[in-house]
Design goal:
This protein has five domains: 88 residues, GIY-YIG endonuclease, CATH 3.40.1440.10; 142 residues, no CATH class; 116 residues, Nucleotidyltransferase, domain 5, CATH 3.30.420; 164 residues, UvrC, RNAse H endonuclease domain (Nucleotidyltransferase, domain 5, 2-Layer Sandwich); 49 residues, DNA polymerase, domain 1 (Orthogonal Bundle). It has 19 helices and 19 strands. Strands 12, 13, 14, 15, 16, 17, 18 and 19 form an eight-stranded mixed sheet that branches. Helix 11 packs across helix 12 and helix 13 packs parallel to helix 14. The N and C termini lie far apart (86 Å).
């Protein structure tokens, strides 16, 4: 703490001028480099309250022993200097992206019956390679398209050795392979397919359509109608593939789309790259999350285009960034012409951003062992409630009682969007009798947090929830907040409010209501959670009521305890059947002896003779 105070004092003495700050550890190693519009304001934030920082920032600050700074004439100069210094020093806590894309090739085997495939290396001296290409995504998709359009084989059969040995595979029957394995296709005809595919790959779809249209017309003029029909089908396939590639009718022919998704600890940047309204490349990067996602986006953009030379004319991102003008100027200088950064609110561009975000969610879900749908709901819930991190571990609570008696509470748990039945808990209200939903909820949360503080592992009560949802409104939320404060534990708490028909209507906080759109996935998710916790709490309350009824009848009989009473009920099914049983039936029932049988028979029949 003394070191933090010392560094804060030094930071408060900095000028309010633009510049670059350089954080160093005790070994004088540079661990972080950043830029600032006002050095004093930015650097002093690091050495204030650590509660407002993400774990990544806290770790960095804990390792800072000293810092240097360089004043610049403008924020733009600070950005250029920051990029240069990060490239030279690769600090541990900066976003560092490796330019490891390498090159990709289209491989054409040297066999008589040639094959086309995608390759990362030129490792076959007999083969011919087309390339290199920077985008492996483009090459993979282009080869897949060519194989489908021109119906090329993808099997491991060797031609002509394997001619006629087996039946054609499924690809032939669904018209995705010309099936030379049948032995009915000449080498010249097969090579026509290969040559057309190579022309398509080298010249692009538009050039390929032009050439094939010319060939089709020539074949028709020469009365080769069967050949013309085959070429017509290929043209149609190319056009369909083009339509599929044009995801939306975007008006910008060259742009990149970037989206960021985080669960609070780790984050994923997804990049879609478009040229001629076609998606030609995509990349994703996993990073440690920072608390300020705007800064994360700014830093990612500068790092990404430091290692990329091809700058688009438009950059579409999923959130506002404070230094967009400075980054626009920097990108424009790198490109040599004006670059625009936009955050779309509606229309086709908004659709592109949403598509990019969905793919980022999918990447993040894969690393966490969940599904994209589950993580999409959690991301939507995070945005709706304004949470700092994605609520992967959610606890929901509901009280239940019968006119003030059998006062209980149920807790259900959802982890990564799924029910976690093994973590469900039941509570019997102990601190008072009667009906008081607010006091009941406060008692339960107090007991839950007490168990959390005592736990030595992260199992069960030892795991702190990312979000607490209470069945009820502001009253329940207000009753619980002082309990959290008492334990000095920060957990977001919200209430789930139902309408007159007992359907989920809104989520409430201590500051107001958040309406739930019934068409959104998060509405369905919260509704199911509220129904589940209500079912669980009611079930527990009914079970306790049933146990008490049970205790007040059979267990009131002398010589009949809980276990013997359970055995009797299991054997006879109902209390009525027990009361109507004769003495011999009672005596021969499980867990019964003569003394117990006498007691039960006399309880229901008095001192009558035991026949």
């Amino acid at each position: 703490m003394e070191k933090i105070k010392e560094l804060r004092k030094k930071a408060m003495a900095l000028p309010k001028l633009p510049g670059v700050y350089i954080m160093k550890d005790k070994n004088r190693n540079i661990i972080y480099i950043g830029k600032a519009k006002a050095l004093k304001n930015r650097v002093s934030q690091y050495f204030g309250s650590q509660n407002n920082h993400a774990e990544k920032v806290r770790r960095m600050v804990s390792n800072v022993d000293n810092f240097d700074y360089i004043i610049t004439d403008s924020e733009f100069e600070a950005l250029i200097l920051e990029c240069s210094l990060i490239k030279q020093n690769t600090p541990k806590y900066n976003i560092l992206l490796k330019d490891d894309k390498g090159y990709s090739y289209i491989k054409v085997t040297g066999d008589k019956w040639r094959r086309i495939s995608y390759s990362l290396q030129q490792d076959d001296k007999r083969a011919t390679y087309i390339g290199p290409y920077k985008s492996s995504y483009y090459v993979k998709n282009a080869v897949d398209e060519a194989i489908k359009i021109f119906k090329l084989p993808t099997c491991n059969k060797h031609f002509p050795t394997d001619f006629g040995k087996t039946r054609p595979c499924l690809n032939y029957h669904i018209k995705q392979c010309c099936a030379p394995c049948r032995g009915k296709m000449s080498l010249a005809e097969y090579n026509e397919h290969i040559d057309s595919a190579l022309e398509f790959l080298k010249g692009g779809s538009n050039a390929s359509i032009t050439d094939m249209t010319r060939e089709m017309n020539e074949a028709a003029e020469n009365l080769e109608f069967e050949k013309a029909a085959k070429i017509r089908d290929r043209i149609s396939a190319v056009k369909k593939m083009n339509d599929r590639q044009k995801v939306v009718d975007i008006k910008v022919d060259e742009q990149d789309v970037i989206a960021y998704i985080t669960d609070g600890d780790r984050g994923t940047f997804e990049v879609f790259r478009f040229k001629d309204s076609r998606l030609y490349d995509r990349e994703h990067f996993m990073v440690d999350n920072d608390s300020d996602q705007e800064e994360m986006m700014s830093e990612f953009i500068t790092r990404y285009y430091t290692i990329r030379d091809d700058i688009p004319k438009q950059l579409t991102i999923d959130r506002e960034i404070s230094d967009s003008e400075v980054i626009e100027k920097w990108l424009s200088e790198k490109r040599g012409s004006r670059v625009y950064i936009i955050v779309p609110r509606r229309g086709d561009q908004k659709h592109l951003v949403e598509m990019c975000r969905k793919n980022a969610v999918e990447r993040l879900a894969q690393t966490k062992g969940g599904t994209a749908g589950e993580y999409a709901v959690l991301e939507e819930l995070k945005e709706l409630l304004g949470l700092e991190k994605m609520p992967e571990y959610i606890e929901a609570y509901d009280n239940s009682n019968l006119s003030g008696s059998e006062n209980v509470c149920g807790m259900v748990v959802y982890e990564k969007g799924k029910k976690k039945n093994s973590a469900y808990k039941r509570f019997k209200i102990k601190s008072f009798d009667g009906q008081d939903d607010y006091a009941s909820m406060a008692e339960v949360i107090d007991r839950r947090l007490t168990e959390y503080e005592k736990a030595e592992t992260e199992d069960g009560f030892g795991k702190k929830p990312d979000l607490i949802l209470l069945d009820g409104g502001k009253g329940q939320v207000h009753a619980v907040l002082p309990v959290l404060k008492k334990h000095n534990i920060e957990i977001p708490v919200f209430g789930m409010v139902k309408d007159d028909r007992h359907r989920t209507r809104a989520i409430v906080s201590d500051s107001g209501e958040i309406a739930l759109n019934r068409t959104r996935k998060v509405f369905t998710f919260v509704s199911k959670m509220q129904d589940e916790v209500h079912r669980f709490a009611i079930g527990y309350q009914r079970k306790r009521r049933s146990m008490n009824t049970f205790k007040s009848s059979l267990t009131d009989i002398p010589n009949v305890g809980t276990e013997r009473a359970k055995a009797l009920l299991k054997h006879f099914r109902t209390v009525k059947n027990i009361s109507e049983a004769d003495y011999e039936e009672l005596l021969n029932a499980p867990k019964m002896n003569k003394v117990a049988a006498d007691s039960v028979f006399e309880y229901f029949h008095g001192e009558k003779e035991k026949i």
